[in-house]
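Ticket reopened. Same input as before:
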Amino acid sequence: MAILSSPSVCSTAFFSTVKLLPRSLSPSHKLISFSSSLSVLHIPFSSSQLPITTQNKGTSSVRSGTNSVTITAAAAAGKRKVLIVNTNSGGHAVIGFYFAMELLGSGHDVTIFTVGEETSDKMKKPPFNRFVETREAGGKTVWGDPADIAKVVGEAAFDVVLDNNGKDLDTVKPVADWAKSSGVKQFLFISSAGIYKPTDEPPHIEGDVVKADAGHVGVEKYIAEIYSSWAVFRPQYMIGSGNNKDCEEWFFDRIVRSRPVPIPGSGMQLTNIAHVRDLSSMLTLAVENPDAASGNIFNCVSDRAVTLDGMAKLCAQAAGFPVNIVHYDPKAVGIDAKKAFPFRNMHFYSEPRAAKDLLGWKSSTNLAEDLKERFAEYVKIGRDKKPMKFELDDKILESLKVPVAV
Amino acid sequence: MAKLVALQHQNHPSFSLLHSSSFSDFNGARLHTSIQYKRKPVQPKGALHVTASGTKKILIMGGTRFIGIFLSRLLVKEGHQVTLFTRGKAPIAQQLPGESDKDFADFSSRILHLKGDRKDFDFVKSSLSAEGFDVVYDINGREADEVAPILDALPNLEQYIYCSSAGVYLKTDTPPHYEVDAVDPKSRHKGKLETESLLRTRGVNWTSLRPVYIYGPLNYNPVEEWFFHRLKAGRPIPVPNSGLQITQLGHVKDLAKLFVLVLGNEKANKQVFNVSGDKYVTFDGLAKACAKAGGFPDPEIVHYNPKEFDFGKKKAFPFRDQHFFASIEKAKSVLGWRPEFDLVEGLTDSYNLDFGQGTFRKEADFSTDDIILGKNLVLQS
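Engineering reply: fixed in the latest deploy. New output:
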């Protein structure tokens, strides 16, 4: 493995993934054994917001900053060529970016194939506006139509394909079929925990009944039919630098402006909000342990839930502001809760049991700590000062007769 | 004392508990004799095994009320010598619904009794040191000062297995409770916490199990019974606030199995384990599950705001009005334990063997319901 920069301290922050040696795993885990010779790999990384992630570190807070990291060339021995087919918008977009960076940090070969045109306006938004970092880390970035995937990736051969784009079989089938015919060994798919049927007995665990008519379900079934080494990942909500879709920002917007935070229903609804590095680490484990991952569904979430009220409180604590939560009944107010609030108005709570049991994966999301970092970035980009309208909020508060400070 | 017993080894010692799909009344069959995950037995060749090193002289503090009833039977069936330390207020052995005469005779002939008050520390110390026990199961301990005399009396104690409580956890914004989570030194269960701390300082090999809500036949805490009374009476179920609050029930037979599994198990040494059901449940969901279990139609659920009422000293609902549940993944992954009962199965077991037989601990009391329903009726008119 080539050393990309001298071991002396550089002024730019470094990003790399610390691959902790020995994970404690039960004998049932089949790990690919790696050789143990050492080498040093530095990956220059311009943004200080993507901190060093430590896998298998429970609820440790995330560190950022300069750090040179020694990884085993064992990773090089098990080097994979990975193709990520990535959506060009929405909450899942950031998954591909983190996954790419983590794979590159572990010494794998990565190509991100983003849907659409490189020059489109969508590419000006995060995480796409950070792809320069991916390229600097040695990754390739291409654009095009997944239906024409053979043309887009050309002669390149891959060991692993992750489809982080399609929500239905029409969109994923061309990718899956092409991968199969071109000899890709492992197919991974980002599905959604939204396909679980609502239950009185949370959490959603792998194997629970899903909505038969959900688009993702059709994809999951097809992949299982045509592939022997496949894995499906069902995420929920994410926070993390480079997110394409607002999550915690929705709360920060109101909290820093001393506006009430309108939450539908009781506020007791549980949801799962993970730091995207948790998703990335789970995917990476699947790539590096294909046998253990094969044929399995993984809830791609952190191992703790949070109530909607709890999320508002944690955001306020991270920001150092008070919070005024106001509950409302969307029907009574006459608004669509989906438009007014970024989370489902119901319990939406999965647990990552398969990943823990089969991959030895551990969650590192610590909302209280992670939100502090998120808030620091929120302020750094000046979003706290940005003029904003809160039309739906105002409608809700008006109907509840809640005063809003001007 | 050594006992030469021909044991029929049904399971490989490294085998972890299987889900038993058969659903039998309690006659011990459901509580199949489990070989523990990591025993330290003598394993000579041949059909006859000397079990001396496997048989323990066990003391259970309590054992006549709920968990202990099931636990003591399991331990006796495994061949251990089991003594119950109780004041003698309840019979040492009572035949359980579904328990065969033969099984009951076998159990009652072998179970031993040490009569005393555990609050009489001098007596505890002298009687225990006179007897000498290998292992103590402390099922009814509440305060740390109750534990010290036991440890003083038994310097060679192999293991102290304590029934603690998930009530020790500090309320959290990010459930579930894991064993590593912060505890609340001011909680109602601080005696349990103080006991755990004492065990840590004394250098004894200890294991602490933290249940959430326990249910099953003979439950003395009106958990499922509370719902069954209302369902039987055809009454609506009043549930505070949204009914979305999430709780968790663990079947007493599953708990008893875990208590047995930690016996002599190195992996349980100085460890805390949450113990409960595999899935959680909303308050509304629990009402529906109880209805299913008892063969009742879907219940009418009435939500109310508890702040609008003054019930005096009476409890209007048997659960804490908050989310309260704990992850059992540590016991599952470290010890290979699995709860066998899912919620409806477990509630059905409880119903068939207890309430459905016409037995219960507390008479139905619908006074708080009537206050709630009365006011609701007024508001609707």
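Chain A has one domain: 3-400. Residues 1-77 of chain A have pLDDT under 50 and may be disordered. Please confirm and we'll close it.
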